[in-house]
Amino acid sequence: MSLTEILAGILDGAGVTLRVVAYALAYAIPFALLFGTLQYLARGAARACVTVVIEFWRSNSVIILLYVFYYLLPFVGMRWSAMEVAALVLGCNVGSYASQVVRAALQAVARGQLQAGKALGLKRLQVLLLIEFPQSIRPMIPSLMNETIRLIQSTALVSLLALSDMTLRAKEIAQTTYQPVGIYTALLIAYFLLAYPFALLGRRLESWVVKGKGVRDAL
Amino acid sequence: MHFDYHYARSIAPIIAHAALTTIWVTIVSSLLATALGFGLELLRRINRPVELAMTVVIDFFRITPILALLYFLYFVLPFYGIDLPAIVVGILTLSLHYSGYLAEVFKGAIASISAGQAEGAQALGMRRSQVVLFVLLPQMLRNAMPPIANYVLSILKSTPYLAVIAVPEMLGAAMDQAADSFTYVEPMTVVGIMFFLFCLGSARALDAVHRHLRRHD
After folding, report:
1. Is the ipTM of this structure higher than 0.85?
2. Are residues B69 and A67, on separate chains, in Cβ contact within 8 Å?
3. Which of A161, A138, A71, A137 is nearest to B1 (CA)?
4. Which residues in chain A are contacts of B69 at CB distance < 8 A?
């Protein structure tokens, strides 16, 4: 097999990889915004509860979480497909990391902003949505690019649940043709091409955050 | 179906014993990744063309999935007649992947030391090697320690990848038990809880180390 044939075979699985990324983001983005904000706002026992949820997803290996949910959900009567389990686990795992980015960005907003908002008579929720959120989005973005890369990387794990993504396609081709060198090199290149734009974008946007210039200058 | 507590209790010691493998894989991979990362960063500083080439290498290791790199080394090395034990392939994979991240850590740590430190030391009559060894290196390590510790934690969380190539670390041991008994619920529950506690404990320990390092700030 030529390298182009191998790449074409692996890219057959790109659809599944991208679907896992998309479905996982559907969990990750709400998770990160909700729990990051709650951890920032809540105090005392409420904050402890939020932290427990975040730490459950963050303080474990994503591959172990994937296996635990894959085998335990049917046990409690939830017959989810491998794709649904993967989206939930990978999404919440990356979402828990991203929640720390959200919380840190909110904490980095100058205290005077909150005090000034309150002095103007705004309610806490209004201060959050109208003053703190808009100012914290920009510093979040480079770190969120890294979390996107983390998500793309962890999608390779769905091959262990027999989902036909790029990694499983590579294994299948390797088993039939026995050309491991070309096939696994192509697999690494395929993932690199998929994720590298996010790394470059993240690096570009880092200087945008530091300089505080408009996004069009950075791009 | 019901949850067999007796069976779960009987496999807990086996998985706990496999934690020893998890620990030493983590330690060896961390040391190797730190050394490699430092080496990559020093190489990057030689000149501009080397810098560009090394940046691509560093990014490549950081961005490709651990699983893909693991398969690459596991299946490609034997093709060239290099037959390594699975655990060595696993350690190499983790070291290469995280060396990319650690190179970035050292880049930041080197940049964080102000030029005045080296100039001041030279003004005091210290030789170049003394400046590096006694003035720059201690400050750099102090700045680099917290992020290095975080990557050690990431490496710990990545050790279960080695179960894929049948290394008997914690997940691998649980998989072996599951394959023997044809039940996955209890082994996965036990390894899930134990690994979680293991990571949480390690994170708390590292937090304590961070606080110790920052006690004079």
Report:
1. yes
2. no
3. A71
4. 188
A61, A67, A187: residue with CB nearest B188: A67
pTM: 0.89
Q: pLDDT for A113-141, tens place per residue? A: 999 999 999 999 999 999 999 999 888 99
**Amino acid found at B130:** Q
> Which sign, positive or negative, has the C-alpha torsion A194, A200, A206, A208?
negative
**Cβ of A182: how many Cβ atoms within 10 Å?**
18
The number of CA neighbours under 13 Å toward the Cβ of A46 is 8
Place of tokens 């390690």: B202
Measured over the CA atoms of residue A86, residue A90, residue A93 and residue A99, the dihedral's sign is negative
DSSP code for A160 = G
A144, A131 contact by CB (below 8 A): no
Q: Are A57 and A96 in contact (CB under 8 A)?
A: yes
* Residue (of A169, A153, A155) closest to A10 by Cα position: A169
Q: Which of residues 8-27 of A touch B (CB under 8 A)?
A: none
